[in-house]
Amino acid sequence: MSRTFGATSTTDDVLQGVDLSGKRVLVTGVSAGLGVETARALAAHGAHVVGAARNLDKARAATAQVRAQAAHGGGLELVALDLASLASVRACADGLLAAGTPFDLVIANAGIMACPQGTTADGFETQFGTNHLGHFVLVNRIAPLLKSGSRLVNLSSAGHRFSDVDLDDPNFAHTPYVEFVAYGRSKTANTLFAVEFDRRHKDRGVRATAVHPGVIQTELARHMSAEVLQQALDRANAESVAAGGPAFSWKTIPQGAATSVWSGIVASADEVGGLYCEDCQVAKRVEGTANNGVRPYALDPDRARDLWAKSEEMVGEKF
Fold first, then answer.
1. DSSP per residue over 168-229, as a string?
2. What stretches of the chain adopt beta strand conformation (E)?
3. Active-site residue numbers?
4. DSSP strand pairing (276-278 vs 281-282)
5. Which end of the chain is more exposed for a tag (fewer CB within 10 A), N or C?
6. Torsion sign across C-alpha atoms 270, 276, 282, 285
């Protein structure tokens, strides 16, 4: 009988008794927070982790604990990746393809949140370009390295409820820029990307899912003042309680990373494939303002196909 996990489960709870020796995992964003903890837990159970980060010096310092706790043949290597530059994304993918070593799991963990209006090196709105398009190109380019039985885990967020994607104006060229609307668009895109990637690859045994890690105090909120962050949390809490949902509570970083490793390793592929997970469970479809569950538009297969086509158009590359 499989064990049941929930909101307070940690990475070590989820991976208790799991031997990942011989497994190879790519984790983006290993210079802080969830990425470091995800890499640590995987390496501690024997996985060889390829950690991607924009600032390799920062990543080397942040992942000292990953190397120290690696066991059963597990280890860590670092590769350069700036998701806000498609030249960097393509160079990273080319390097991984040249090495030719397959992956058992890819965790698209890196991201930014609620930053001031700006653009990536390629002219895309910063959050959509970094959180979605950078991972879209990276994952699709290295898809040949995902062997049968492997998985893709995209880190989305409950923030997807702030907005559906806008395929007519993805760069806010004609609509006023609002930080959390932009964040919501990018997180909805992360989920829709998993839906369509799963549809395209499940016949060859490769599955994809999206996850909400929970609300954790990490560098993700670095663009927000303490006052603005608290206001956002108070508003989300009030909306959730009014809608009959749970009251807000912080998660620790090990609790936040647990859903990534649960959905990527422990849950059955058919249980999570093409879906959205939170608290180490498959989330329910929920309408309204509650801060739990997944909004139906984020799992809409037609919307997912349309986003795929728009993303290909934007990056100038067909997959």
1. S-TT-SSS---HHHHHHHHHHHHHHHHHHHHHHHGGGT-EEEEEE---B-SGGGTTS-HHHH
2. 24-28, 48-53, 75-80, 103-108, 146-155, 207-212, 276-278, 281-282
3. 156, 183, 187
4. antiparallel
5. N
6. negative
Query: Whole-model pTM above 0.85?
Result: yes
Residues 6+ apart with CB under 8 A from 82: 54, 88, 89, 121, 134
11-315: which CATH topology? Rossmann fold (3.40.50)
Residue in the block written with tokens 């909101």? 7
How far CA 76 is from CA of 38, 44, 274, in Å, comes to 12, 10, 29
Q: Is 259 helix (H, G, I), strand (E, B) or coil?
A: helix
Q: Match 């890499």 to its residue by tokens.
A: 39
CA separation for the pair 61, 304 (Å, rounded): 38
Model confidence band, residue 292 (pLDDT cutoffs 50, 70, 90): confident
Higher-confidence residue of 15 and 3: namely: 15
Average of per-residue pLDDT across 244-253: 74
The first and second tokens of residue 92, run together, are 């990273």
Residue-wise pLDDT for 114-168, tens only, equals 899 999 999 999 999 999 999 999 999 999 999 999 999 999 999 999 999 999 9
